[in-house]
Amino acid sequence: MSKSIYLDYAATTPMRPQVREAMAPYLGAEFGNPSSIHSHGRAAHVAVETARRRVLEALSASTGRLIFTGSGSEADNLAILGFARRHPDGCVVRSSIEHKAVTEATRALGAGGYDVRVAPVDSRGVLDAEALPGLLPGDDRPTLVSVMWANNETGVIQPVGKVAALCRQHRAVFHSDAIQVLGKLPFQLDEVQIGLLSLSAHKLGGPKGVGALLVRGDIELEPLIYGGGQEGGLRAGTENVAGIVGFAEAATIAAAELDEEAAAWRSLRDRLQAGLCAALPEIAVNGGDAPERLPNVLNISVPDVDIEGLLTSLDLEGICVSSGSACTTGSVEPSHVIKAMGREGDLARNTIRLSIGWGTKAADIEYVLEKFPRLVQRVREFRAPS
After folding, report:
1. Are residues 60 and 176 in the same domain?
2. Catalytic site includes residue 91
């Protein structure tokens, strides 16, 4: 295979060279435990607290506790389950297009009898914020509303400002999974009153195995992991110092280069979308008619094709993409996100997500535009009965 075109940045990203350099000392000489009181421990503690401050700065958040976790999924679970355990008589309302970390956490809660409610989206993949109040309890029970900032499969941006305002009005806690957003959209958290915000390092050029949950105001959660009381008592266990330092470096770079990179990604995404639609007018762009999308994500449905055969053929030509969300790869069921948007049949099953990132070049897009339509035709011909 002569080429390798990686268009799966929404699944994970290659680590930025600056991030590796920032992490290197904490994988070697600076090996201390941040909870130790000797010099090695103090150095590690300072590194973690400096990283915490830098991530908050990248979020433009002047207030809040940043709790480092082992992943974005853990951050989502800490928000959902931590709230429910603190408020066993409460209610959780989520959108129908949340990441599996949220949908599965709420499914487990619902199976145990907890009050879980699901807010639908329209055919564009956008939550109807005006319908949300009807799903909220009519009493004074503690309520958590979980609506992701932007969808990980379609890139569709949700009306988080409206949801935040509704939550304030109804005295509900607002949780948003912003894992796909950091480094793609500007953050002004002092303007959007979100109580709980989930993040992950490996979506923006940082290391895997590091996430964070921003906890604002007087919101109280129960921990999922008990032990030595690290991270303000909300996440026990020795901190991943090198990973946390890498997270902060990646977040700082992403925030500094956001405007330039987002504009470049949007141009590449639009070129890719226009080229594919021109060559294959039968495809559907999922979320393409939404008011706003992330600048780097394109999700399409390709009718009348063996989707596994197409993905394999693309891979053999050096084109790395995913079918729906990477967290559901291998499942024969259509994506719950695409189904929630009303897609059926081939349009629900045959989805491909192409996502762009800091290493993508214009030549990569042209290569995909050259190969993709031919491979679709080849797979269709192979599938056709003799």
Report:
1. yes
2. no
